[in-house]
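A reminder before we start the practical. When you read a complex entry, don't treat the lines as separate problems. The point of joint prediction is that each chain is placed relative to the others, so the output describes one connected object in space. Small molecules and nucleic acid strands, if listed, are placed in the same frame. In the example below there are two entries. Take a minute to note the order of the lines before looking further.
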Amino acid sequence: MKRFPWEWLIAIIAGFALGLFYAWVLSPVRYTDTIPNTLRADFKDQFRIAIAASYASTHDLGRAKARLALLGDSDSSQALTAQSQRMLAAGESIEVVQQVAQLAANLQGGVMQIQPSVTAATTTSQIIVSPTVAVIGAATDASTVPVESPTTQSTPAIIFTPTPRPTHTPIPTPGAPYVLVAQDNICNPNLTDGLMQITVVDKHNRQIPGVEIIITWSSGEEHIFTGLKPDIANGYADYIMQAGVSYTVRVGESGTPAPNLIAPSCTDSGGQTFTGGLHLSFQQP
Amino acid sequence: MPRWLPPFIAIIIGIALGLIYGWVISPVQFVDTTPNSLRADYRADYVLMIAETYHANQDAGLAARRLAIFGGDAPAAIAAQALQTGRASGYAPNDISLLQELTRAMQAYQPVPTIVGGTP
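Here is the predicted structure of the whole assembly.
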C-alpha cells in the first residue's frame, strides 16, 4: 500500500502560506485611485458637508445630486437628514447643520426654488457620468457606480448639462420668519401631561429638520431643535409644559413670537382632570 | 527526477494558490479609505466644492480647514494641484476661475496661531 505523500502536502501548505504572506503583507492589492463610496464614514460626512455648503452657494441641485451619488448612499436625502441630526446632537454649528438639512429637504422636494430675477452665471460645464466598475474586493459587491468625472470618458456616457447656476439665490432663508399657522389643544390621556408638540414646515409644506425653537416663560428659556425625532417627523420637536405657566414660542431667531401658550386643562372619560397638550404648526410664509 | 524537484514543485503550487487566494479570492479590502487615496479628479471635485463655498463666503479659514481633510499637504498645494487637474481635465472656465480664486486665497492665507498656556 502506497503511503500518503505528507511531504507534498506540507510543501504545498508552506508555499500557500508564503504566497498569502506576499499577497496580504508584502504586496497587498493597493487602491491608490479610490472612489468616494469607499471612504470611511466620517470622511463621507465631511463630503456631505462640503456638498451641502457648495449647494448653499451655487443652488445647483443637479450637481449636488451627482456628487451625492458618488458616496453610494441608498437614499441620499435620508443620509443627509440622519447626518444633520447627528450633527445637531453633537452640538455642531447650526449654520452647517442647516445647510445639510436644507439640501436634504430640497432633495425630497425634488425641485429647487429659483427667484426669477436671479441672473444665472454663465457656465458651460458638463458633467460626464459614465458607468465604471470599481472592484472593492471579491467579498463586496462589485457594483457599477456612476462616476462623475471631468475627464473624457469612453462611451457609453450620459452627458447632461447642469442647470445654470444662479448667484446668491436665497434658499428658504433662515431669516424668513416662521409664523404660527395652527394651534390645537390636545386632550389625550395617553400622551405625556403638558406635551407641547411643534411642527415646522417651509412654504412648500416640507418638514424642516435642524430648526431652532426658542421657548420662553417668565422665569426661563429653553432652546430645542426639530429633527431629533425622525421616527415621528423631520420637522417635529416637543417640550413638556408646566401647568399654569404661560409660554412664548418662537421658531428661529427672527420668528414671530407666539405668546400666551398655556397647557389646557382636560377631563378624561372618568371625570378626572389632567393637563393636556398643545400642537403648534409653524410655517415660513 | 532529482529528489528536490517534487517538494519544489509543491511549494510553487502552494505559492500560486496563496497568491490566487490573497489577490483574487480574498484580497485586502479597502473599504474605509481616506480622502488622500482618492483619484485625482475626485480630489479636484472636492476642492471645487470648497472653492464654490469660498467664493460665496470668502472664509479662508474654513476653506483651509476643509482642505485639511487631505492630510499633511499645505492648503495652497492642494488647491494648486486641483487647479492643475481641473485644467488637464477640461473644467469649465467658471470652475477654473473658482479654483484659481481659492488657490490665491490659500497662498495668501496665514492661519491664526493658537496661543497655548495661561494668561501671563
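Discuss with your neighbour: Chain B touches chain A through 57 residues (CB under 8 Å). What might explain this?
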